[in-house]
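debug: dumping io for the single-chain case to check the tokenizer round-trip. Nothing else runs in this session.
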Amino acid sequence: MNRIKLIASMLKGANTVLDIGTDHGLVIIEALKNNYIKKAIGTDLREEPLKMALKNIERYNLVDKVQLIQTDGFKNINADYDVVVITGLGFMSIKRILSMPHKKPNYYILGAQHQLEALREFLAANNFKIIDENIIYDKKVYIFLKVVAENQQLSYEDVILGPVLKTKKAAKKYYQKKLQELKKTVDFLTGEKKEEVKKKINIYKKTIATLN
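debug: decoded output
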């Protein structure tokens, strides 16, 4: 399974999906092909990706099931949707989009390219609850969060590891990599930064042991 198939599989049972930053429309095409969803709205800031998305959608005869809109985040979205997908963007972009006024969906699928800890902290501070996390190794590591608009308190450990991901054996390889990265840096640090990294090292060690 690749990351496109994984994201699509997380949409099973949805009616209309709003894919923000749809790029070439691959996620919504995969979801529609497999009858995971009934309809989709794909948006992107740029015209060129949407042209490619339209070509791909036409190739699979899905034009009647997809609406493509050139827009920023939730702006100019008047159609109904029950799931929102925001993947392939950085944390700051996801934060900005989620902070826009919008109709709350049944759930969100989020995938930050970096600053995953910051994303989890933002979600907890802004009444979003992480109900699932999936990891896949597709040339590099991708982690996708399933989120609902509910209150959630996260511990420091949850922010580092992921409240759901830390229970999944598939995350062990990822945690081992993070542990090695921290071990390489800890001796070059001093003061509070060093103590924080040592704390993270202990968290990763403890969790890796539980996933054996």
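debug: round-trip ok. The chain has a mean pLDDT of 96.
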